[in-house]
Design goal:
Elements (H helix, E strand, L loop, with lengths): L6 H5 L9 H13 L7 H8 L21 H12 L3 E7 L2 H9 L3 E8 L3 H4 L15 E10 L6 E6 L2 E6 H8 L13 H4 L8 E7 L13
Antiparallel strand pairs: 1-6, 2-3, 2-6, 3-4, 4-5
Helix pairs in contact: 2-3
Length: 218
C-alpha cells in the first residue's frame, strides 16, 4: 500500500495555501510505481511553480497549489516518472478507466465536490476547503473497481479508500466547474478550471499488459 505524507499542508500557511490534491494524487501514483522515489505533494508543488505551460507566453503549472491544466499535468508527471510509468491526458470514458485498471494502471480524475452531507451519498468526500461550500474541483486516484459489475470504483482520497459510483463520477467530471469554486483566487486564474471538464489522466506501468491487472477489489 502506498502512503504519502501531506507535506504541503504541514509546510504552508493554512490561511494562504490552497488545495494540493492533484499533486497528492500524482505523488501517490508515482510512488506506487517507484517506491524508492518517495515523492510528496510539496515536492511536486515546488517543481510545478517553475514548470512552464505548453504554448503559453507565461504561466506555470501551479501558482498556489491547484493544478488546472491536465495535458501539461500529464507531461509533468512523465518527467518525474523517469520511465517507471507513462501518463496521458484522455477524455472521460468508462472503457478507458476500465482498460487502465486492467493493465495495472491508475486514473487521475478531476471532479466536483460540495462540502455537505448530500455529497456523501455518492461516496464523494468533503475536501477540507475552508473558504467555500460551493462546488469546487478535486482530483482523485482511481485504483480499481469494487464490484463485479464494474459500477463502483475504488478511489484513493488522502490515503483512505472510497467507493465512487462510476456514473456519478462521470457526471461530476463532465459538469461545468463554476469559477467561484477556487477559494478567493483571482478571476483570471479561476477561469482556467474549465480545462478540467471531461478530462482524465491515465497512468500505466512501463510494461502495461492485461497480466498486470489488479482487477476487482471486492
Amino acid at each position: 500500500m502506498c502512503t504519502v505524507p501531506n507535506t504541503y499542508r504541514d509546510e504552508m500557511d493554512r490561511q494562504t495555501s490552497h488545495p494540493s490534491c492533484g499533486f497528492y494524487a500524482a505523488s501517490y501514483v508515482l510512488n506506487c510505481f517507484n517506491p524508492d522515489a518517495a515523492w510528496t505533494n510539496m515536492e511536486l508543488f515546488k517543481l510545478a511553480v517553475q514548470y512552464p505551460l505548453t504554448n503559453r507566453a507565461e504561466g506555470c503549472l501551479s501558482e498556489v497549489g491547484e493544478v488546472f491544466h491536465p495535458h501539461d499535468f500529464a507531461r509533468f508527471i512523465n518527467k518525474r516518472a523517469k520511465g517507471t510509468c507513462s501518463a496521458a491526458c484522455q477524455l472521460f470514458h468508462e472503457q478507458t478507466i476500465w482498460g487502465t485498471i486492467n493493465q495495472g494502471g491508475y486514473a487521475l480524475v478531476p471532479f466536483q465536490v460540495i462540502n455537505d452531507k448530500q455529497n456523501e451519498k455518492h461516496g464523494f468526500p468533503k475536501t477540507g476547503v475552508q473558504w467555500t461550500d460551493l462546488p469546487h474541483a478535486h482530483w482523485c486516484v482511481i485504483a480499481g473497481y469494487a464490484t463485479t459489475d464494474n459500477s463502483k470504483l475504488l478511489a484513493k482520497h488522502w490515503g483512505e479508500n472510497r467507493l465512487f459510483d462510476i456514473d456519478e463520477l462521470g457526471n461530476s467530471n463532465q459538469g461545468c466547474y463554476p469559477p467561484q469554486q477556487t477559494n478567493n483566487i483571482t478571476p483570471q486564474r479561476a477561469s482556467k478550471v474549465h480545462l478540467l471538464q471531461s478530462q482524465i489522466i491515465t497512468i500505466l506501468p512501463a510494461q502495461a499488459s492485461p497480466s498486470r491487472q489488479r482487477g476487482c477489489a471486492c
